[in-house]
Description:
Number of helices of chain B: 17
Helix content of chain A: over 70%
CATH topology of chain A: ABC transporter involved in vitamin B12 uptake, BtuC
Strand content of chain B: 15-25%
Distance between the termini of chain B: 63 Å
Distance between the termini of chain A: 6 Å
Number of helices of chain A: 14
CATH superfamily of chain A: ABC transporter involved in vitamin B12 uptake, BtuC
Oligomer: heterodimer
CATH class of the largest domain in chain B: Alpha Beta
Strand content of chain A: under 5%
Largest interface: A-B, 25 and 31 residues
Strand order of the largest sheet of chain B: 6-7-8-3-9-10
CATH class of chain A: Mainly Alpha
Radius of gyration of chain A: 20 Å
CATH architecture of the largest domain in chain B: 3-Layer(aba) Sandwich
Helix content of chain B: 25-40%
Number of domains of chain B: 2
Radius of gyration of chain B: 29 Å
CATH architecture of chain A: Orthogonal Bundle
Amino acid sequence: MVLLVLTVPTILVGVAIGPVHIPLSDTLSYLIGQGVPVDGSPSVSRLIISQIRLPRVLLGLLVGCALAISGGTMQGLFRNPLASPYVLGVASGASTGASLVILLNLRGALFLPLGAFIGGLLAAGIVYRLAQERTKKTSVYTLILAGVAVGALFSAVTSFIIFLCSESQKVTDVIFWTMGGLGRANWAYVDVLTPIVAFGSVILIAFSRDLNALSIGEEGAFHLGIDPEMSKRIMLGVATLLTSSAVAFAGTIGFVGLIIPHIMRLIIGPDHRYLLPTTAIAGAIFLVWADMAARTVASPAEMPVGIITAFLGAPFFLYLLKRKRVRM
Amino acid sequence: MKITINGLSFSYNGEPLLAGIDLTVSEGEILAIVGSNGSGKTTLLRNISGSLSPESGAVYLDMKRLPELSITELARYLAVVEQEREVGFDFTVREIVALGRLPHRGRFARETKTDKEWIERAMELTNVTPFAERSIRELSGGEKQRVFLAMALAQNPRVLLLDEPTTYLDINHQIQIMEIVRQQAAAGLTVLMAIHDLNLAAQYADRVAILHQGRLLAVGRPADVLTEANIKQAFQVDVVVGRNPVTNSIYINTAPKKANAPTSSAKLHIICGGGSGASVLRALADCFSLSVGVISPLDSDFQVAQHLGAELVIEAPFSPISKRAYEENLAAMRASDGVVICETPFGPGNLLNLSAALELESKTRIYVLNPEGIEKRDYTGGEATKLMRRLVESGAVPVDDVWDLKRRLGSRYRSTNCHVDQKSGSAKEQVLKTPGQ
C-alpha cells in the first residue's frame, strides 16, 4: 500500500525526466513540470515536447497500464502466473491485421491501429468461441489450448503475408511493427486510448474480488456468491479489449503484461484488489522508462522497446524470484 | 434451516445418476450420506448446493425453492467444503478465510468490523489462528481443510455441505473436523455430508442415508441403517457391526467371510476363551476344519469361531461346564486329529477343559501354547498348573507361539496352504515375531 502512495509522484517524475535524457535543455523539462504548453512560443523545442515527446510518454503510460492490468487479470483468471495478455491470441491476430494493412498500402493515420485492433479482437473471439462448451461454459484449459492453436494459425498467415511482400521496405515495416514501439505516438492515439484504458481498468478493478474468489476454483467461487461464467466473460472481454487497443497503437510489446503483474504479486501479495491497481501503475511507469532507454541507449537510432522491456524485466524478475516474498 | 429434497432426479449424458431422492434434513441435524464410489453422493450434494440443477424434482431451503435464490443469496445461507481445493496463488490463510465474507459485502465495500469479527471467530473455532499469516499452499492437508472449513464458517451459513471432508486426513484431524462440525450443528447449523468412513458417520451423524446406484437404500439412525445387510448391499462387502461400549456408537469392521475350504482334511479342536484363541483360530481357519469348546456365547473367542465357521461346544454364560457339555467336548476332541490349548486363563469355570484333555488317548496329539506361563493365568489355586504339568509330562507338545504352532501343524498334517504361508504369506507376523527370538 506504501507502493500505491509512492507511485503517484513517480509518474510525475517519469513524465518530467523522460524527455530530458534526449539532448534537450533543462528549461524545457521545467516547462513540462509546469504543465502542458499547447501553443504560444514558436520554439522548436516546445513543439517537439508538445507534439512528440508528451504524447509519446502518455501513450507509454496508457499502453503499459493496459498491458499490465490485462496480464494481471489473465493470470488471475487462468490461475497461472505464466499467462500473459496475449494468451487468447491477440498478439498474433493483431500482427496479421497490421501486416495486411501494410501489404495493402492503406495509408490513413488510423488504418494501421484499426487493422491491428480488428485482428486482435477477431483472434480472441475465435478462441473464446472454440472454448465454449455445449453447456455455455468455458474451460480455462481449452481457452489456453485454443489460444495457442489460433495464435499459431494467425502467425502463419502473417508469415505468408510477409512472404508475399515484394518490397523490402514493407517487410521491414511489418517486422518493426511486431517488435512494438511507441514511435508513432500522436495526440489522436492518446485521445482514443485514454477513455478505453480508464474505463477498462475501472471495470477490471471492480471485478478484482471475483478474481480472488476464483483463485479457489470456479466451484468454490460459486459457493461464495460469484457467478464464475459471468465474471470470466466480462473480465476476458475487457482485458482483450484493453490488450487489443494497446497493441493497435504500440505493436506487440512483450514482457510488460507477463512480468509486471508477477513482480507486483511477489511484492504486495496475491490479493487482486490491491494487485490490479498497483500493477496498472507499475506497468505504466515501467513502459515509460523502458521507452526512454530505447531512445537513448543507441541514440540517435531507436531500439524496439520490447528489447528493453525484456532486458530490464528479466533479471529483476529473476532476482525477486530468488528472494522470499515480502509484503509492503 | 431445513433442507427438503423432493423427488430429485439427475442424469448426465443420458445416464441417470440420481433417481427419485426424497430427503429432509432438519435444522441443527447432521445427516451423513454414505455409499460406494459412484453411488451419486457428490452429485446429490452438488444438486443441493446449486452447482447442478436437478432434472426433475426440487430442493428447498426452508420454503424457498433453490433457483428462486440468487447466487449471492444462496451463498449467504449455504456454504460448501469440498474434498480438496487447489489455490491458485500464495494467499495467506487469513485472506482465504476472509473470502467467506464476500457474499455479505458489496462489490466495492471494504471489510467492516463485523466482517473482521466473523473472520477471527471462524479462525479461532477451527484453530487456524496460529498460522493465519502463512501461505495456504505451505499447509498440510489437515490444516488446509480446517482453513476451508473456517472460510465456510465465516460465511455464517445456515446450511453446511461437506463433500468427503476427511478423506485425506489422519484420524486426529478427522476427529477435529467432525468435532467442530458437531459443535456448529449443536448451535443450529444444518449439516449434510458425504462421507466414506462409515465409523465416522456412525459416530457423528444424527441420521445416515445410504445411497446405492443413485437411489436411497435406507435413511435413519446410524444403528438402524448401518446394518450388515445394508452395507453388504451397498458396498458388496462383509462386515461385522458392533457397539463400542465406551462411546455407545456402533462400529463397523470388515470381516471377509472365509472364502476357501480348508486345504487339509485334518480336523483340530481348540481349547480357548477370553480372547486367547482369536489369533490361533484366524491362523488355522484356512488350513484345517476347526472345533472349539467348551465356550460361552459371551466370549469374544466365540464370535471369532462362529464367524470362521468352526464347530462349537457351548455352555451358558457364567455357568460351570455341565456334564453334557463336558461329554460333548470330549467327543469333539476324540473326533479330532489334534488338540490345541491356547494361552487361556483357567478358573473354576473352565478347568474341566484341561481335565478333558487329560482323558484323551495318546494317539491324539496335544499342542500347548506357552505351558510355562500357566502360573500367571491360573485362577484355581494351583490346580490348573498341576494339570498342565501332567499334560506336558504325558507327551503334549509345548509351542512358543501361533507361528510355531502353524509350522508344526503344517508339516504334520501336510497342509500345503500352511507351508506356502510360512514362506510368503503372513510377512507381518514374521516381522513381529523375529526380533523377540
